[in-house]
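During the reporting period, our protein records have gained a structure token line. A sample record is set out beneath this paragraph:
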Amino acid sequence: MQLRPEIELVEVSGRSLRIIDAHLITDGPIGHDLPDRGVALTAGPDGYTARWSRGSVDLAGIARAFVGGAAGGALFRLLGLPGAVLGAVIAVGLARTARERPTTVPDPTVTVVEEGPDLVLRSADLASLVFAVMELTGATGPVTVSPALQAALTDSEAVRLDDVGGLDEVVAQFRDVAVSFRHPEVMARWGATRPQGILLYGPPGTGKTMLARALANEIDGELREIRTPEILDKWVGNSEKNIQRIFADARRLDHPTVLLFDEFDSIISYTGAAFDAAGQMINAVAGIFKQEMNTLIEHNPNVIVVATTNFPDRVDASLVRSGRFDLKLAVPPPGPAAREDILAKLLRRLIARHEVGGFRLFADDLDVPALAAASTGLTGADFKEVLRRAQLDKAMHEARQGSPPSPITQADLLAIVAAVRPAA
């Protein structure tokens, strides 16, 4: 199994380009290290697109437009000007700088169009597109383009559905939800309504919260996580006010948002006969939750509610009926193939993040299928713990001994798996 990324080296006219794992570059943003931060690369079904925001010019660049390279002196003088004068000078500098930059490239496979202050370049060939961008921006390289690099530069908050292993059916449903979010005009034309609520249930550590986070990133939105202390309050009436406030805030959101009620059963459970103040409070909170969910999507289509629980039998069926939670998806413990998929994705992310400058995190003897076969009963969270322990052991060895140990081996991981399995 290929874990380390494949690297393609391309050179044109003294410019060099490293494309890492080109076969993994699919729809969505692409990581890159172009010097000009105003460049955004994306991949789509018809090829690749680069958007260059020519307005993103620094003060040093403006100064060079005035004084032919004496940027330091120009900036010193500019900073002494009154605010209004400085603003006018910057505006003139921006306009002059934008005019002096080219808007065409000689490569016929690359199309260039102007959209306001931006240049948008498109090509079916990634290398041609990047070299055209380098020519426009003056970058000399080497430049690296890679989805693996993008993953290495982000943390767990940037997880996407491609990073979720072993849950193909659930991920497919989430992709459909993301598509419906991105095409509201199609939904409206057909009178279709996307799900406004998703209930995820299954054992701990199977990836329910990660799925919610991945969905938020797929719709280019944010995750708003609601935890028990934000709702439940010992003072009479406060819990009801808290749930009303949460939904009132949600109705005002003007950008895509996943509203996550994690451990839903600990927030709202069964409703029914109330024999004490706590029971009355649960009934009241549940009643408000039902009312709010009935009309949330009508008032704000930017919001989708995701609830997770390890104990679906503790959640009142009326709370999660269709119309409130249209998708109810089981997130089971991973089987052998799913464990292999999860391990491979975790290992690839760690390799992309840490194996730089000749450093090797893992030895060449890693056998992912064998690891997966030896890990019966483990979940994605357990695998993260196995890898965390392995990394910590090696780091502590180097910290104590002062010299780097050998990379993490198959035997190292098998030993940790054996230690983690009883707990699992």
About this structure: The two ends are 26 Å apart (CA to CA). Residues 73 and 138 are 23 Å apart (CA to CA).
